[in-house]
Amino acid sequence: MALHFGKRESDIPKPLTSGVTAPRYGANPTMPTGQSPQASPAPADPAVTSAGAKSAGTAPEGGSKLTVGPNIKLKGVEITDCDTLVVEGMVEATMDSRVIQIAEQGEFKGSAEIDIAEIHGVFDGSLTVRQKLVIYATGRVTGNIRYGKVVIEEGGQLSGDIECTVSGAARASGTTSKPPSMALAA
């Protein structure tokens, strides 16, 4: 994530545009577009932030990211075409995505099919993680859980109907996978 704290907007590289810019959300309507007051720095331009993140290798090429901020409640939706969902508030939804990151104060309720899940907060519902599920010390995951690989930090909680899945490719090729070396207590 490229953050530009302490920098003036003039110090941050601008993306090439056709010369027509739309005012940003939260911009001061009395101030001309593209200018910010000198006393307080303006919020980072989303185009600049995503370009910086792509160059740093933290976001997938052409990837989309949705962040539900603190104190925000997103309820009763289906999230599609989102590569990364960052939950800092509360989300009740159904989604199919690449990555979900639930912050310590974040909470997700519903159904999710994900490649990689990083849980610092709370997940409650049906979770299918195709690759890797990481539950940190403050994380709590409950419900119907399916995963390829799991990492649980000391203090992290995993409960419900839990199953380690074996990829269909390994079954089709006739190879056997090594059984998990640790049994989970329900």
Quickly describe the structure.
Helix content is 9%, strand content 40%. The protein contains two helices and nine strands.
Describe the structure in your own words.
The protein has 186 residues and is mainly β. The protein has a domain at 65-172. The protein has helices at residues 46-56, 168-172, and strands at 65-68, 73-79, 84-87, 90-96, 99-102, 107-119, 122-135, 140-152, 157-164. Strands 1, 2, 3, 4, 5, 6, 7, 8 and 9 form a nine-stranded parallel beta sheet that branches. The radius of gyration is 20 Å and the shape is globular. Residues 16-29, 35-60 and 168-183 have low confidence and may be disordered.
Overall pLDDT level: 73
Written as H for each helix and E for each strand, in order along the chain, the element string is: HEEEEEEEEEH
- Number of separate helices: 2
Low-confidence stretches: 16-29, 35-60, 168-183
Please describe the biggest sheet, giving its number of strands, its sense, and whether it closes into a barrel.
9 strands, parallel
What percent strand? 35-45%
